[in-house]
Specification:
alpha/beta; Nucleotidyltransferase, domain 5; five-stranded mixed sheet; globular
Length: 291
């Protein structure tokens, strides 16, 4: 072994290193950070650390808060100077929704990712919504931030309809070739938020607030399977039973169906069928945990 490492010019100690998992204290801290971030998405690590001390009596180093925020895939949202350029292999597209009047379903879809806490560990949730009706078209859970679960959600959504414009942030999951190729193949115009801009994707940010306060924070998911089943039930409720004041107290499904003849019924039926039908998924073999 020593000779092999010498020939390869690598440190032998690296072969024996076993990365440590998150501690129980980090899991608890991430849940508190998530709650604070949802209330004040414009707070960075320093201010969140101050709030944790003020509200929870926790003295936490801001570097630790920043590290956990990076792991959760969140950052303070505000306009930043353009001090760095995206990776050259990932094209970034202009924001197309400024001053655009959105008047009908399937005019604009949007996607985003958020952190989902569990009693032990956490997952990432991506959803794709119709901007006009707030209808959740598809969603996926994953235990990593790889692009695969976002691509899978997009493939399912495109099997149910085609928007004119698709809006996301500039995350690598959405700027990668696998994701953008699916949109280009269908002549869908790609729109991307400015970095760190909260208002550019406001409706999906509101969805995160709704999902977390009405579902996630009321539960303590034991594992990915329970999270998937519970979120599936919630999204069925959200789409078909929960009235929205901004929609004239109609449900997203009613508004979506009003302009997309016969489509919404098929989408709702597919959502119910898929959520139940995947209940036997082996989470130990498949990293994407969704309906």
């Amino acid at each position: 072994m020593a000779r092999q490492c010498q020939l390869l010019s690598i440190n032998r100690s690296g072969l024996y290193y076993q990365p440590k998992g998150l501690s129980d204290a980090d899991i608890v801290l991430m849940k508190l950070i998530d709650r604070q971030y949802l209330a004040t998405p414009f707070y960075g690590a320093r201010k969140i650390a101050v709030e944790l001390k003020k509200q929870e009596g926790l003295t936490v180093n801001r570097k630790r808060v920043r590290r956990l925020m990076q792991l959760m895939g969140i950052r303070a949202v505000y306009r930043r100077p353009r001090t760095s350029k995206p990776a050259p292999e990932h094209e970034v597209y202009p924001y197309l929704l400024r001053d655009l009047k959105i008047t009908r379903p399937n005019q604009v879809w949007a996607a985003d990712i958020t952190y989902i806490p569990m009693s032990r560990g956490f997952l990432y949730l991506v959803t794709i919504i119709d901007w006009y009706s707030r209808y959740v078209i598809s969603w996926r859970l994953s235990n990593t931030l790889d692009a695969d679960f976002c691509v899978a959600a997009l493939e399912e959504a495109l099997g149910r309809g085609t928007p004119e414009i698709f809006n996301t942030d500039q995350g690598s999951q959405f700027t990668g070739e696998a994701f953008t190729r699916l949109l280009k193949e269908r002549d869908i115009r790609i729109s991307m938020d400015g970095k760190g801009s909260y208002n550019d994707n406001l409706f999906i940010e509101r969805l995160w607030r709704t999902v977390k306060y009405e579902e996630v924070y009321l539960k303590a998911y034991e594992d990915g399977r329970e999270a998937r089943i519970s979120l599936g039930a919630y999204f069925r409720f959200y789409n078909t039973s929960r009235p929205h004041q901004s929609l004239g107290y109609r449900t997203p499904a009613e508004v979506y169906a009003s302009a997309v003849e016969n489509t919404c019924t098929n989408v709702v039926e597919s959502l119910v069928t898929n959520t139940v039908g995947m209940a036997g998924l082996s989470l130990s073999k498949v990293p994407i945990l969704s309906y």
